[in-house]
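Attaching the record inline, Q. Sequence:
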Amino acid sequence: MKNADVPLWDKGDSTDNYSKGGAAPRRSSFEGMLEMDKNTEKIFKLVLGRKPSTRESAYYRISRMEKGDIILKLLSGQEHKDLVSKAKKYPDLIKENREQKSTILKLKSEHESRVQEFEDLSRLLSEKNNMIVELRKNKDKPYISDKRILEESTSHYSKHDQREYAKNSSKEESWFDKIIDLFFR
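Structure, as predicted:
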């Protein structure tokens, strides 16, 4: 009798892959475990673009899931769905990134021009203040310090005024001369 020495709880299907006690079959060799880890790593890299964590690697190593089942499970997971939605946004993000870089360059250029403008204005302000100090030192001096120019201009005007006065005083004006003076001179 085949199942006579088997306990009552284990009298199930004799064609299953479980050994006595109901545990999953273990890999027979260390090489088999390494191969399963490599396959799991390749699947994770293919589906999720990353290596599996040690916990994930251990889970898939001891499970009896086939390669196709692991792929389907990872494809239906939330992590893969998040990756797909982020991948859809990628072209827009690239475009936005270019625009932001352009904006940054414009702002840097504007900042540099404003710094240069500030330096120029500071220099001009310093020159203005120096000129004010210089003018305050010379405030008692007349604006035109060359006396020869002053003498020439007063002598010129005074000669002209003297001629006009002499001309007007030597001759008596008629009412006709006064009208002509009024309108034409």
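The first helix runs from residue 30 to 47. Confidence is low (pLDDT under 50) at residues 8-25.

More tomorrow.
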